[in-house]
Write a structure and sequence with these properties.
Elements lengths: L4 E7 L3 E8 L4 E8 L11 E2 L1 H19 L6 E8 L5 E4 L9 E2 L7 H9 L3 H8 L8 H11 L3 H5 L3 E4 L1 H9 L6 E3 H4 L5 E2 L4 E2 L1 H7 L8 E3 L2 E6 L2 H4 L4 E7 H8 L8 E5 L3 E8 L10 E8 L2 E10 L3 H9 L9 H6 L9 E3 L17 E3 L7 H27 L6 E4 L6 H11 L3 E4 L4 H13 L6 H4 L5 E5 L5 H18 L6
Helix pairs in contact: 10-15, 11-13, 13-14
The structure holds adenosine-5'-diphosphate.
């Protein structure tokens, strides 16, 4: 019999991908298909649900074809997805009543201001682990019900709400299950982490009827069989998890205190906090890591708004480099930034600062400051911001992690990774398989169908590629961090309210 394989569907913000893995976690093939973004008004972002579905099916078929595997050898399929993006469809016909409202969309910022003004902020934080924001699905769904006048239909059970995992499951699985996994539910601002159920008090405040909400299932569980129209055979669809949660699993951060950081457009750092749900004192989110066999594992999460996007800015707006990869050579052409700091607070600063009025700041320049110093300062800024998140996590849980596991496009930059290790004084570890999000979804699916005996077995798949050991003297580290924090102070509260 041929070796069994696993397929991950990775439905992202700009493209739908499918990745085929063998059970040892080697990538056999991958295919990504991009789709258009829609910006109907400033600050609004939408996707056509049909684009999400068709690009995902195309990516799946193409990846399987590229891999050359027999469809009969696919043991299971896992789903991972852009989080918080909100869809609402007709239970009878499957037709969406509106475009998907994407996580980035700010249309409900006023609704969140109202929630805060009414004094619901603390209660929402306590129950959901989230800091109330338009980013999460709850106010997006409430907006759809209000603006399309759909309350009665939702109440009558005629409509289905779902995040992208839920939407894909409904369309790809025979029998159209209306389900979502706990990690995705945890990003809606309607899910109570303690009871692991939708929260009636929150639903009442948002005026969302339970009848339109999906059933919450585990992250690793067979939810049904892939419809035979897609690959010609039924295949178990056996996992669903939000992208950052899947990546934490794919990085084998299975033990309490293990942390990963993904360096993409933004950076997303998650720390496994085990069975304990930690209430952050430093502006981090408390979220699900995953739920397996009904047992929740929790995580702390922090994000950097401008990660790799800072390098795109150097390339596209400042024209200081022509490719992102070039930043490494330019940065290492000088021995330091010569005291220059860039605080890329272009859209404000997130945890642990949370200042939406801060703006980008370049300080410490002299007559000798040149392009290389600025490029280096931009890369260092990604590391400083991530170090601040790590510090916040360490303070919240009372222990410094033993290492930081990294992935994402900008983690290819060796200068950035070495500086990250130096400035945190913690080793930075890069795995062989950088597609950790897809790998995590595949492993969660493999676990559900018994290809791995238990969660610990999946960790054997994770392989170290490179470790960046910290080598910077303590006094230099402290000096640089002090400078960074002085620079951050200067960026704060810049916009006039
Ligand atoms: P996303 O999934 O958010 O699109 P990716 O993981 O594909 O992001 O990473 C792309 C980001 O990484 C871009 O913002 C790009 O500027 C940055 N990037 C890619 N390669 C490098 C590099 N060698 N050095 C620094 N930044 C890089």
């Amino acid at each position: 019999m041929a070796q069994k394989v696993l397929v991950a569907l990775d439905q992202g913000t700009t493209s739908s991908r499918a990745v085929v893995f063998d059970t040892a976690g080697h990538m056999l093939a991958a295919k990504g298909v991009e789709f258009p973004q829609h910006y109907p008004k400033p600050g609004w972002v939408e996707h056509d649900p049909n684009d999400i579905l068709t690009t995902q099916i195309t990516a799946l078929r193409e990846a399987v074809k590229l891999s050359g595997v027999d469809v009969a050898d696919i043991a299971a399929i896992g789903i991972t997805n852009q989080r918080e993006t909100t869809l609402l469809w007709d239970r009878e016909t499957g037709t969406c009543v509106h475009n998907a409202i994407v996580w980035q969309c700010r249309r409900t910022a006023h609704n969140v201001e109202w929630l805060l003004k009414e004094g619901y902020g603390d209660m929402i934080r306590r129950k959901t682990g989230l800091i109330p924001d338009a980013y999460f699905s709850g106010t997006k769904l409430a907006w759809l019900l209000d603006h399309l006048d759909l309350h009665e239909r939702a109440e009558a059970g005629e409509l289905c709400f779902g995040t992208v995992d839920s939407f894909l499951a409904w369309h790809l699985v025979t029998g159209r299950p209306h389900v979502t996994d706990a990690t995705n539910a945890g990003r809606t601002m309607m899910f109570n982490l303690e009871t692991q159920d939708w929260d009636d008090e929150l639903l009442k405040i948002l005026d969302v009827p339970r009848a339109c909400l999906p059933k919450v299932v585990d992250s690793s569980q067979v939810i049904g069989m892939l419809d035979t129209s897609i690959l010609g055979r039924p295949i178990p669809v056996a996992s669903m998890a939000g992208d950052q949660h899947a990546s934490l699993f794919g990085q084998a951060c299975l033990k309490t205190g293990m942390v990963k950081n993904t360096y993409g457009t933004g950076c997303f750092m998650l720390m496994n906090t085990g069975e304990k749900r930690i209430h952050s004192e430093h502006g981090l989110l408390s979220t699900m890591a995953w739920r397996i066999n009904g047992k929740p594992t929790y995580a702390l999460e922090g994000s950097v708004f401008m990660g790799g996007a800072t390098i795109q800015w150097l390339r596209d707006e400042m024209k200081l480099i022509s490719t992102a990869a070039e930043s490494e050579g330019v940065a290492t052409s000088v021995k330091d930034t010569g005291g220059v700091y860039l605080v890329p607070a272009f859209t404000g600063l997130g945890a642990p600062w949370w200042d939406m009025y801060s703006r980008g700041t370049l300080v410490g320049m002299t007559r000798g400051t040149g392009r290389a110093h600025v490029v280096r300062a931009a890369l260092e800024a990604i590391a400083y911001q991530s170090a601040d998140l790590m510090q916040a996590m360490a303070q919240d849980c009372g222990a410094t992690p033993a290492q930081l596991q990294v992935d994402g496009g900008a983690s290819a930059n060796a200068f950035l990774m070495q500086f990250q290790a130096d400035i945190m004084n913690v080793p930075v570890v890069r795995p062989q398989v950088m597609e950790t999000t897809a790998l995590g979804a595949a492993l969660l699916a493999g676990l559900a169908v018994g290809l791995y005996q238990n969660v610990e077995d999946t960790a054997a798949v994770w392989q170290r590629d490179l470790t960046f050991e910290p080598t910077m003297p303590e006094h230099e580290r402290e000096h640089l961090l002090r400078g960074w924090h002085r620079a951050v102070e200067r960026s704060l509260n810049w916009l006039e309210k």
